[in-house]
Amino acid sequence: MTDVSNLASVQLQPRKINCAMHGDFEAKAIQFPTFGNRTNKIIWASCPQCNRLTAEREADEKRAKEEQARQRRIEERLNRASIPKRFRNRSFETYIADTEAKQKALNTAREFAENFVEHASWGSTLIFAGDVGTGKGHLAAFAAQYVMGLGYSAFFATAREVVLMLRESWHNQNAPSEIEVLRMLTSVSLLVIDEVGVQFNTDAERDQLFGVIDGRYRDLMPTILTTNLSRKKLQQAIGERSYSRLREDGIWRQRAAAIGAIAHTKRPDLDNIVKAIKDGANGVAWKDDSQVVDVHASKQYGTPRVEVEITIC
């Protein structure tokens, strides 16, 4: 039987050791006893400055790997959300608002994103309308990425892509079924539908879009849409049912004026607006120097709500 009474490690007297990089240093050592007749094992400490540099390098490598993993997760989320690569790594801060109208559109998109918790509880719809090249898709994509940063899910697609996704199962048995695609489009926290209107040439296409809009409307799910069309042409393009859903919960932002008759010439007091809505008023409107504002009444599940539509003049 081996006597283990003397097998404890022993710390030896320190001695000077030369490091080729940092010169002499005082090293400590620990002697570990071994079994049998083998020589005891002695481990001398290495250069403390080398150890520090190694630890810093390993920490940097760990941080780099963690950052790469984080970027991969972000990229995977953006891929799942179908955010166009052109809009990635950009934000509200990089958007160039070189006109008053663009600045107001930027403010609206930022408010929508930063207050998404509130808009999510309402099921709000934000509509950007304007000519090609005015940055509507950029703002919509920025809003989607912002809410994803808050932990919500998002999905970005053109209206044409939405229709093609729903129809894919008709021709491809391996594709998700139409009901599965519809369930995804209606359950994602924020859906962005880009380029709405111009491609709807058949009632079947309008019905498919209505299925998405109506599903999100019923479940109070926020939606952002962009279009090059005016209100009247958009209504004709997507159909009365879809337009009605958007109109009820919509915040409309566009580049040109015109929105029907104005009931008030001065901005009414907000408390009076809320009181009028609670009392059952259908809505009020006013016009100031820069915009036309139409405030509509709505009682979703018995709760009074105020929806504002803004048209840039």
UniProtKB/TrEMBL annotation:
Signal peptide: none annotated. Keywords: Coiled coil. Residues 65-240 form the IstB-like ATP-binding domain. GO terms for biological process: DNA recombination; DNA repair; DNA replication. GO terms for molecular function: ATP binding; magnesium ion binding. InterPro entries: Endonuclease_RusA-like, IstB_ATP-bd, P-loop_NTPase, RusA-like_sf. Residues 50-77 form a coiled coil. It holds the Pfam family IstB_IS21. PANTHER family: ATP-BINDING PROTEIN RV3427C IN INSERTION SEQUENCE-RELATED, CHROMOSOMAL REPLICATION INITIATOR PROTEIN DNAA. This is IstB-like ATP-binding domain-containing protein. It comes from Linnemannia gamsii. The lineage of its organism: Eukaryota, Fungi, Fungi incertae sedis, Mucoromycota, Mortierellomycotina.
